[in-house]
Amino acid sequence: MAPCSKINREEISFSVSSLSEVDASTLPRDKVCIVSIFGKSSFLANGCKAFLIDEALGKNIFQGMFTDPGEINIDEPADIQGFYHPESRVIFLHLIGSFDTKCLLQKCHSIENELKEKTFLEVWSDLQCSFSKALLLIFHLSHIILVAHPTTTFDVSYIHLFQTLDSVRQKAVPCLTDLLRSFPISQDWVQAGRPCSPRVLFIFQTNAPEFQSESIDSSDGTGKTRSKKFPPIKRLEHALEDQIYRILRKSRVITNISGNSLFAVPANQEFVYVTSKKSLIVDPLGYLMNQLKECCSFPKSPGEMDPSKSKSYLLNRRGSIQNQTANDLPAFALTPEDGASEHSFKAFLWQHIDLALSKGFDDNVGRNIVRAYFELPTAQIWFQIANKLKNWFFMEPKDSRSGAVMSLLKTTLDIDVRFSEGRCAKVLPLASAAYQDNLPTHYTLDYHERKLNQALQVFAMHARGPAFQQFAQQLEEDCERLWQNGHQMCEFRSLTGNHCINPLHRASEDDEDVDDKTLPIMPHCSQVKMLSACDCGRRQASREDPFEVKAANYSFYSSLHDDCCGKLERIKFPVFTSTTGVSRPAQISPVQAHQQSEETRRKRHESQPGRGESQVTTTSMSLALSFGQPGSSDMFPTEESAVELSQGSEESPRQTSDQEVIISLRESKVTESPEKCTGGEKLGVLRQPSTTEYLPGMLHSESPLGLLPMFPSWSLICLGPSSLYSHNIGIQEQPGFIPGTNFLLPWDVTVKLEHKDRWPTVWDGKRPHTWKTKKGGKDGSQFTVKIFIGVEYECPRGHRFMCSAPDKVLRATSSGLVKDNANKITGNDMPLYFPCPCRGSKHQVAQLIRIHVVTPKAPVHVTLNPRVQAAPPPSPVFSPGNSEPVKLSQSAYWVLRLPFVYQGDQGPYLPPKDPVPVEVCHLLKGTYDIAEQISEKS
Amino acid sequence: MADSADRGRRRKKRLIIPPMKPGGRERESEQDNPQPGKTLVILAKPHHDDQPHSESASKPNEGTGKSPARTPEIKAPTVLLKTRDGNEKEGSRSSSPGNVTSHSTTAVSHSSRDVCSSTAGSCPASSVGQQPVYQIQQKSGHITGDDQKLSLLPEMSTPVKLVDGENLQWCDNAMEFLVDQTNFYVVGILGLQGSGKSTVMSLLAGQLGEITGRQLFKPETRELRERGEHCTSGIDIYVTSERMILLDTQPLLSASVMDHMVQFEKKIPCGTDYRATENALQIQSLQITAFLLTVCHTVILVQDWFTDPNLLRFIQSAEMLKPATPTNPHELSASIEDTTDYYPHLVFLQNKCQRGDFSPSTVCDMEELLLNVFQNSKLKHTGSVWMEFIPIKDESLHMEVANLFLLPEREAEEKGVLPNYRGHPGFNSLGRSLTQQLMSVPRSTLTHTALSEKNWFHYAARMWEAVKKSSLFLEYGRLLP
Asked: What dotted CATH number matches B160-330+337-411+423-479?
């Protein structure tokens, strides 16, 4: 075994990406010529452009087999297949890259996700860049380069590519010189970075019938114009040669001194070859079918085919190939083209190879001819150099110098992206200006977004290309920054839904919503003024848009106490009273609130008067009430099952004006009266209020037990005696009422006392006018009372009006008569919001704010139990906090003022924006009721 | 088959009723006659390419009065649009007066765009020709007064220049062939040299003729091909009787065009701003492309091999450089929302396809590549044109399909017992399918307001100037090496 002496004369197939695997030491010492081929290829060609070389060598090297098309390596920038043919002393390189459709498809596969984000323009510039690196490599390693075209026209897009490659090559020369210094090659090669200025030859393919085959052409040379010196395919070659030469000269891709340009074309040798043949791989089906057809058509004597009559010369030839290689299918070698043939690829290529192997190229033209450098390496050295250069071109650049070369390549190719970036950068200030045009000192998010949209539109109008997204985002960020940098409006929502118009600020020292501690402290202000009446309704005052519940529901009204209703009798609703002097708000998390609410609901049911067992034990006399109308509210389904309730009359309340209340009395041993409970601060046993923690918001059905608000959001006030109201005149001394709506509505209720023994006799004497004995009643156990009720709405402009039904504004007739009664009010849920009938530019939404009740002079109490559903369920039901219905004193004018805003744990429930009735916001029915008067007895 | 139903679902309703046999057409017209007020039936011009037609069909000008009219269903539309007056005169002389009167009442009572004609006058001897043959076109917005205009609808015999090839200057020649009606359809074509643009356009015009015969748009002659030169230069325009405006262009990025620039030291069109010829060539090609993308309803990108990635990139570059659709200054406030630019339909037409191209897997791969490449393009490249006879791989997915259509090489009629397996239904059948699909591509308005043909012409002229003067191209040109 003597490895040094043993010379391997085997042909070697290799791939440039794995050059180091080739054992170069055993290669022959012959000088070799390197021939490369690249170009575009159609999808069907499977990336193969070198079938002519295969044909010329008579071997299947690059084509692969049509039954099993070779996979293309897409990991490397480009797949370069190599073949060393020692016999002819040539190394062939076949570059497959993005220009080959098959390869492009595979690459698109592998970067599918990238393609979703980037535009093809960006992706293509990357693909083209890596392809160009591979091209640069073969331009530095080859003597002859074949450019394959799938058509018969020269692809002018190569001009830009060549120009780019040349400029990059010149930049790369110093780096390459460093790399090559260690190799035993001539100084010229080291200095130039390449063995010679390569010759580029162009190969075209044609399908056109007139170029199909020389033999056919010669046979139909009947036309007079056709009888020229050359066959058409030759004429086309010459025309293309002239065209290409002119174009390349004009674009200065080739110059007089070949060493100064990327490549050269031979001055007096053919450099264009047009073939009418196709790679077998393009149409294997057609090939096989033709074979089959031939078999079938001439089953008897296949060999006797008349060549002159044959449909296709090509077919015939292929057939013979098939016959030759029938027993050697995998190799699928093609017969070498007849070298003597006038128009053969082998002849075309080998004239250049022979020249290279003998004299070398000298493609300099012009007067001062300088000898061009040309060198043939040995295969051994070439493999080493190729490996080194490959690493330099394909690897990430290590030093700044090679990095600069690669980035030059990238930027030169990246025209579309550069254009787009340039364009977008130019337009960006324009768009920014559009945003900043006419900007107020501070403005809302909404305004900001509108302006931003405007700016984006300006941007979209002028900006182009793949960089659009990136710059649009930058524009967005710029504008956002500008806005946030001192132009932001506070926009804190008031409880009525208006936003604060001050610049971004803190409301107090310890404002949790704002992180920035440098912001000025100032109160919120929406500059919206509203006109509201006081608790009793006799005085109107303008108010600021409230930002806090206390201001909305308490402070404003209490500020008017001094002027108006401060001294009037009022029933107070339960509020928090501190015993220790230290109080803090309770922490209420939504989850907790929910759990609580479950509990509360259950407990509340129990605590409802006359509805639970516990209540029965404590109050011996329970007032079981029936309103003579169906179940008062859906909220309390258990109500129906309350055993203590005596059933009311079955008659429908809507049909009769009189309603019957049956008050059943039981033996009473306990002196504690329900009135005491409703009257004041005491609550039911189960709701013992905390004295250290208060409820931060308003009291509602889901508030935790045992917590009371700091202030009452409701107020119940007695204006005075019932004589204050005259049904003929209407309400008086209440400003703001829309004329004709200032009336209360009569509610006639028949009261039937079931416990006759207990009924006091004091009433026998006088009979108030509201209390008349019914026909059926014998001794005054059944009588009718007349109560006046008004449901008052108030709009932000201070307009007030009454409603006579859930969907109707009360209107007196022109003579001042009111024909309605209050049954629709008492028997239905009343809407919380109602469009104000006032005329104005913008229609306002009025809110149910007061309930007027004029109580009769009868031995019964009118009770109020207001509950408000301020938003669709599951939002809570608001109530003043009374544990049972509040009893109003007889023969008096009472006004219940409802909260101005309703705020739950999740924030305020805002009134609707448009003045349309809202279906879900209601004062729930069951607010009004009658209870027997009992306090005077005890 | 199940897949035929599937395809039917995907297929939009075709506007075009396939050409009928003469008998069928007669029946149609007879039904129409008694009820002149009936809603219009939309008939399209029948297709010529399914059978070789007489010379008179391809040269309508000469074939008016004296044509043999052996194939009335082919000839009818070309004749009638041109000389209705003449037809009526002839009709009054005709042997079937009943038909003629009903014919004229139809035309008058509709007072819209019905154009009727009779071949009776021109061919009284033929029994077929005695029946009036109606060519009914789509209704347009015009109400009165254009009966006269209609009757003078100009018929084009050959394409004329829209943009001349020398200096790329706008030509007004085509104006006389355009009328004031809004129902028209602009199709433009783009492609590299020798890919078959003119041939495809002739096919769409229905005037392709025989392989060796004359066709509407001149293709490269054999001699030109031998010299490697192009044929069409500038932009040619032809208006069909169906009011389809065809724009045939000079090849993109053509070596031959560049060679002409080099050789004849031509003053480089599009200004001298581009220092190098190759840059001027590229900008010029971009300008033509951008122009077509602006003024066409549908742009066909024809290639004769699949596929030049550079060309695909090139189209997208042109998309980027395309001038913005002008907004109406009168409705600035209203147009804030709809300042969206106009993008035409883009149809990828693979011409001169070979057997292998027609295999379903290859078509699927092509589709996939095109979809990938044009994924982020705003050009409407999916869903309007497809290969009807090739089943799509994933029927269940109902994925979008690219507007890819394959046309085979035109081949002479094959003689022999065993015809070759071609893998496709033949050039004529595919050509018909392509024409029908293209005609039924939904037409969106080019601008924010509807244009009439004449408006379109002015608009196109404005756009051409805009493209030529656009600073975008200048900027782009400066970046070229």
From this structure: 3.40.50.300
